[in-house]
Amino acid sequence: MKYNKKTAFIFAAGLGTRLRPLTDTRPKALVEIAGKPLLQIAIEKIKDAGFQRIVVNAHHFAEQIFDFVEKTDFGVEVIISHEKEQLLDTGGGISFAEKLIGNEPFLAYNVDIISNVDLKTFYRQHNNENLATILVSDRPTSRYLLFDSSNRLVGWQNAVTGELKTPFANLDVDKYKKLAFNGIHVISPKIFSLMKDFKSPFSITDFYISVCSTESIIGYEQPDLQVTDVGKIDQLKNISNKFI
């Protein structure tokens, strides 16, 4: 289905287990920073970048997200993709929302990421011939994505256990750039046909790794990028109003 509006998809369906006890009575997306829910922070940032339609997936305490969206005038169209039967994970959530997202390149955005990313510039970096453009950075993490000299994704590595995921035989990880994924990407609509063979629930990262030998998934680095994952209780406590 074609929509004549630039569309974004917000991942907001997760159980928020790392934010317990806050998420024992509400969805992660409605946990607040400085009195403002994470979902509102994300919607306002995406709207300010020129997006006119926002699809939000919901599962954990989904009725609270429905109520919040219905009662709040964001000045932009917000549609709920209700994963009623089961949590579909990031890849499955995108696949499930296909009819709501449409057939134009779309922004995908984790609700628990607070950053200074320039979404307008980031969106423009995407070439629709590539499957996806993903926001990455050189920062400490235990799990890295691996990129070649053209910034094309070739694999994933757990730096603690040494586990490696790649479709390429005998990949020498030392020859590739190790960058952290920041939960924000621009995705071409051809992803939906490629996902038909994947059974939900499934991770978008695992999906990217499984198809990166035949599809181009490009890493993009914003030079001054600052990112905080507030999906953890300690990070939530430490975050300031810096990016809000």
Explain what this protein looks like in three dimensions.
This protein has a single domain, classed as Spore Coat Polysaccharide Biosynthesis Protein SpsA, Chain A. Helices cover 23% and strands 27% of the residues. The protein contains eight helices and 14 strands. Strands 1, 4, 5, 6, 8, 9, 10, 11, 12 and 13 form a ten-stranded mixed beta sheet that branches. It has a two-stranded antiparallel sheet with strand order 2-3. The protein has a two-stranded antiparallel ribbon with strand order 7-14. Helix 3 packs across helix 7 (204-211). The longest helix has 11 residues, at 38-48. The radius of gyration is 17 Å and the shape is globular. The model has no long low-confidence stretch (mean pLDDT 92).
Question: Which features characterize this protein?
Answer:
globular; 244 residues; Spore Coat Polysaccharide Biosynthesis Protein SpsA, Chain A; ten-stranded mixed beta sheet; alpha/beta
* Overall geometric form: globular
The major β-sheet equals:
10 strands, mixed
Structural class: alpha/beta
Name of the CATH architecture: Alpha-Beta Complex
Tally of structural domains: 1
Which fold name corresponds to the CATH topology?
Answer: Spore Coat Polysaccharide Biosynthesis Protein SpsA, Chain A
Gyration radius (Cα, Å) is: 17 Å
Helix content: 10-25%
- The low-confidence runs, each spanning 5 or more residues with pLDDT under 50, are none
